Amino acid sequence: MLGRRRFYVGIVEGQRVVAVMTGLGMLNAGITTQLLITYFNISGILHYGIAGNADDNLNIGDITIPQYWAHLGLWEWERYTGGALSWRLFKSAKGEDMKEEDLRCIEFGKYNVPVGNASNLLSKVCYDEEEILSVTGSPEIVEKHFWVPVDDTYYKLASQITTKDLNLQRCVDASKCLSHAPQVVMVSRGASASIFLDNAAYRSFLHSYFNVSPVDEESAAVALTCLTNNIPFITFRALSDLAGGSNATNEVSTFLNLASVNAVIVLTEFIRMLPSQLLTTLTK
């Protein structure tokens, strides 16, 4: 036991693994990932769990494998009256290059009800990059990252997973079944923040502005910690709900266990496909 967390060492599909539960949220996930990297001689991290679905092209039960992850909980909240030296202007004043993500803000006035005057005291939130201290960089010199890629070799291998070869669950019981058979889907982007998302408007914003499919509370912390330590990783997230995108009650209470089992099935298949090496598995 380390940091009050239990680490389970064993064999899965002929591979040596260390398994541990991250705990809820970005802080827990980051701490757990760093403990793994510090105290175990690992060659890669496989993260898995459930997620909300921000993509209308996907269905509850699908298992998503994003190529990139971002933390969308690091904000600069602008004042209503304007005139503040915002972080974007501050970066420009320092001579730093502006990036696409520098312009990504959500203006609350656009979501007023009834629609009309776009003025809102909440003004707008703009998303900032994370600053990390990489083991491959210079001491005390920060690197800025927004979209963190998963390991390219892992991603290419995961793309070979065939849904028809897997016994993915479709029904919780005789009265509760998914409308579509679950699929393993390679997607472009996933996003995390220590927020349980159950809001249709914000869900739509995340997908239209960032092309995000799964939304969760841990994966970006795992991604950033692995990036900091130069450790390859990949994440498998099964969609348990529509993140507020339906008129019904949030679906997570119905499909959480089904989605969790399907995530484990896909993870196990991925481990089976890997060449022999020491791995670590991280679950929410």
UniProtKB/TrEMBL annotation:
One Pfam assignment: PNP_UDP_1
InterPro entries found in the cross-reference section: Nucleoside_phosphorylase_d, Nucleoside_phosphorylase_sf
Coiled coil regions in record: none
PANTHER family, per the entry: PHOSPHORYLASE SUPERFAMILY PROTEIN, PURINE NUCLEOSIDE PHOSPHORYLASE
Annotated Nucleoside phosphorylase domain residues: 4-272
GO molecular function: catalytic activity
GO biological process annotation, one example: nucleoside metabolic process
Protein name: Nucleoside phosphorylase domain-containing protein
Highest classification ranks of the organism: Eukaryota, Viridiplantae, Streptophyta, Embryophyta, Tracheophyta
